[in-house]
């Protein structure tokens, strides 16, 4: 199936929402529909880093969120902080919690998906499961509430592969609502935007080494989770 046509229309409201800032890090709440970094085409230049650099010119991207995903994103203010934070992501010291509304009733209350992923090159930027050549990818999930039509799940990615949560939920037969790349006709039309939100991120501060926790409320549904501990 061919990818749907990509029309970039980044949101202007909110334009940029800061959650925290000091001399070493900047934390924002990224809106759905905004690229983390610029695309190649001139019309795809608007992005998180472009907007943040207009305020903090030295800030650099440490990790990315999919364009359609909203939520907590951390940037480094200097090279030392960038190295420190990058190492935390690479060695899986960070902790992350996402929430997603998915199609259908998820049978198991909790579980784990271990399916290696690789770029689906003819259909890029799509990813696909490939048990022979894919990179290891692991996601833990827990059902928060469900009906026959949809389920709200908390997602805890152990690895950080591109589109990991979207492909892993699809592999369970429960595509994320509003997913234009991986959803069925019905699940795509069930929401105007991808129903995936990076609600919490925990890291060690690159200088003080203090354990920091950043959270944002869910922008969809009426569920507000307990603090991420």
Automatic annotation (TrEMBL):
Keyword Isomerase among UniProt keywords: yes
Pfam families reported in the protein's UniProt record: PseudoU_synth_2
GO molecular function term, any single one: 23S rRNA pseudouridine(746) synthase activity
Domain Pseudouridine synthase RsuA/RluA-like per the UniProt entry, residue ranges: 24-170
CDD domains: PseudoU_synth_RluA_like (cd02869)
Superkingdom of origin organism: Bacteria
Family named by the database record: Belongs to the pseudouridine synthase RluA family.
Job description of the protein: Dual specificity enzyme that catalyzes the synthesis of pseudouridine from uracil-746 in 23S ribosomal RNA and from uracil-32 in the anticodon stem and loop of transfer RNAs. Responsible for synthesis of pseudouridine from uracil.
NCBIfam families: PRK10158.1 (NF007543), rluA_subfam (TIGR00005)
PANTHER family: DUAL-SPECIFICITY RNA PSEUDOURIDINE SYNTHASE RLUA, MITOCHONDRIAL RNA PSEUDOURIDINE SYNTHASE
Name of this protein: Pseudouridine synthase
Organism this protein belongs to: Alteromonas ponticola
Lineage of source species: Bacteria, Pseudomonadati, Pseudomonadota, Gammaproteobacteria, Alteromonadales
Encoding gene, per UniProt annotation: rluA
